Amino acid sequence: MLTTFAVTALVMIMVPGPDQALITRNALAFGRTAGLLTMFGGLIGLTVHATAAAVGLSALLLTSATAFTALKVVGVVYLLWLGVQSLRAGRRTAATTAAAPEAGPDSAPDSGPERCSPLQHIRNGLLSNVLNPKVALFFVTFLPQFLPTHGNTLGRALLLSAIFAGLYLLWFSLYNVVVARIGALLRTPRVRARIEQVTGVLLVGFAIRLAWQQP
């Protein structure tokens, strides 16, 4: 049963979502460390939901339409904000690239996206998961399928949550390394602008999809 859970969980982790969009964007824009910090923040948020589901808090949340709606609205607004920020960064980079030929050889080099502190990268990943009720819904509906009908249910739920977190860490660590290695090829201003724009569109799309999510 643990093998079935691990394989299923890994497939679900690999499905593109806000985490992957943010990690890709930060790894390419700021480097491997930024991608790892974003992943770490996402892992913390994931752990919050997994632990809450294990002890029944998420189930309690999802039985309250008001609580679910409030969390969903905050999550939608946050994803929209991230999406708009990425779109704006892409537009600035594109504008800088377009103006570069006219600036002459003495002009300052493209500064790229605004620098972020390590805590900002962690916060991005954390909030993208904590404020996403779909993550809570996933654990509440997914974990029970692999829990025993009697015995130490809480211990089993915590074990499965730990396995899921470990797989999340493994997959996105490898993913981040690959993205960072090819980053030198993709970090030109023109390509970076496209990446920012695509990430912005994806995050806005995730926000719209989340807005339609029902408890």
TrEMBL record:
The keyword Membrane applies. GO terms for cellular component: plasma membrane. The chain crosses the membrane at residues 31-52, 59-81, 157-179. The keyword Transmembrane applies. GO terms for molecular function: amino acid transmembrane transporter activity. InterPro entries: LeuE-type (IPR001123). Keywords: Cell membrane, Membrane, Transmembrane, Transmembrane helix. It is found in: Cell membrane. It is a multi-pass membrane protein. It comes from the Bacteria. This is Lysine transporter LysE. It comes from Planobispora siamensis. The lineage of its organism: Bacteria, Bacillati, Actinomycetota, Actinomycetes, Streptosporangiales.
